[in-house]
């Protein structure tokens, strides 16, 4: 079970990449994986939302398994949280598109990483105090929410 948990939380072992920070690589990889799905509407929004919730629930389980096995909390290897943060942003893709899809993806990447690294309130408190699988994921979902808000505001002026 730990091998499956490791595979899942590391986003197919992307969390082990050492050339660049694992969160940055995982965010980029997440966009590469999810962008075609939303841009070309490969699946319906309802199915896309349902898959998000399934991945979210599986992430809670597998992060707990991995963390308890490695005796760590929010290990750098765990990058499924970045995937979920990017996924959350892309749930709103049709409302936040700016100029063209590639500019939108670039802005999503830059803004998400900015908010994920900075951990603006309440993400900073959650990151420090909520030592659970939910806490690992929640700060990235907050970074995703901030990204959505900024893109909504930018979209209002474009």
Write a concise synopsis of the structure shown.
The chain has 158 residues and is mainly α. 73% of the residues lie in helices and 0% in strands.
Give a topology summary:
Layout: H1 2-9, H2 22-39, H3 45-70, H4 80-90, H5 93-96, H6 101-118, H7 123-129, H8 133-156
How would you explain this protein's 3D organization?
This protein has 8 helices and no strands. The protein has 158 residues and is mostly helical. It has one domain (2-156).
Tally the helices: 8
| Quaternary structure | single chain
Radius of gyration: 15 Å
What is the number of strand segments?
A: 0
- Determine the strand fraction and express it as a percent band: under 5%
In terms of per-residue confidence, which ranges show pLDDT below 50 for 5 or more consecutive residues?
A: none
Largest sheet composition: none
Shape: globular
Mean pLDDT: 95
- Number of domain units: 1
What is the succession of H and E elements? HHHHHHHH
Instruction: Quickly give the structural class.
Output: mainly alpha
Please give the share of residues in helix: over 70%
Cα distance spanning the termini: 48 Å
